[in-house]
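Example record

The entry below shows one chain as it appears in the dataset: sequence first, then C-alpha cells.
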Amino acid sequence: GIDQPFFRALALDDTRGNNGTALRALLASDRPLEIEIGFGRGDFLLDRAQRHPDRLFIGYETK
C-alpha cells in the first residue's frame, strides 16, 4: 500500500517547489486515509469527508 517506500517517495515528489510539507504531514497521521481516483467535481468526496471528519481524504483527478 501507500506505506511502501516507493509509493511514499512518489507521492511526496513535489515538482512545484514546496517539498511536499503538507502531504508529508498528512501521510504521517494515524487517521485512516481514503483516496478517490477520478473524483470529478468532488461532490462525493466532500460529502464523505463531512460525514467522516475522523478520516483523511485525498482526491486525484485524472483529467
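Notes for this example: Residues 43-51 form the longest helix (9 residues). DSSP finds three helices and two strands in the chain.
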